[in-house]
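Repro:
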Amino acid sequence: MAEARALLTDVVRRVSPIAPLRWMGQGWSDLSQAPFAFLIYGLLAFLVGLSFSDALAERTENPWALPLTCLMVFAAPMFLLGLYEAGRLIDSGQRPTLGLMLFVQGAARIDVLLLGCASVFLYLVAAGIAPLFQHFMPFEVVCAVALAFVAACIAFVATPMMLDARRDIASVARASFVVASKNLVPLSVWLGVVVALSVVTLASDYIALVIIFPWLGLAGWRAYRELSGAAL
């Protein structure tokens, strides 16, 4: 535990507001390292995206829609871990494979599962707040932005930290707060990039997710590597 807390001192880097554009460029370059494996991984994300869309559409009619949606949100950090593992392999000069992305060592440990629970809690909070303020747009927008920012910190700061077995959920939460507090503007720009690509994904009926998901995941690894001084 003491060692995990000590690792917080690594996460102190401030980056430029335009750093997210660099991360996207690096992520696009990383796609060429194993294009077939990344396309298959993106195809899996596309299928999950379709299921998620159907679950949301039927949540008022199908009693299994909410549990199914929560299950997918719960699994999201573990699914992202596969892409972060691919980024780590590329950094170490290795070639990522589909098998290594699907079966990441340590992905099922308790701290990763707790991170999934945090994602579900965030989703349920968002789903519960939205109907309460649907007639008060300014507050609804503020809540949506705040929750989206926290979700981005979980996805692109907390989740890649879980590749380091020395980190626990408490140290990850603290480190994510440190990163966010020192890089509010760059992470806001990064969130804007994610939202823009999400709009493209929705406009394409999730087809674009085949490319966008692995691209964002690899760019997210680059973001973590630049934001954090920790060497994985």
